[in-house]
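pinging the channel bc i need a second pair of eyes. not urgent but kinda urgent?? the chain im working w is below, pasted from the shared doc
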Amino acid sequence: MAMDHIEFLDFAKSLPDQGEINLRNSISRAFYAAFHACNSMYRASSTEEGGMHEKLIQSLKIGESLFLRKLLWASLPN
């Protein structure tokens, strides 16, 4: 099931900012929003060992300049 990073971010923003548990949940959902946004722009290498997070980290290290160019290009106004 594909995850929509915007839904994670919207949920993070919707949580009340009072109390440690809400802040921790908000930070966690914001992290996954960023993670899925990166993963959708730059697919993790299937040749790397490890879980999904480690594969994405290693792929980003290998293709850092390509990823940054994609990220910059995506952020430019149409």
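so The chain has a mean pLDDT of 78. and The chain is about 70% helix and 0% strand. — does that match what u expected or am i reading it wrong
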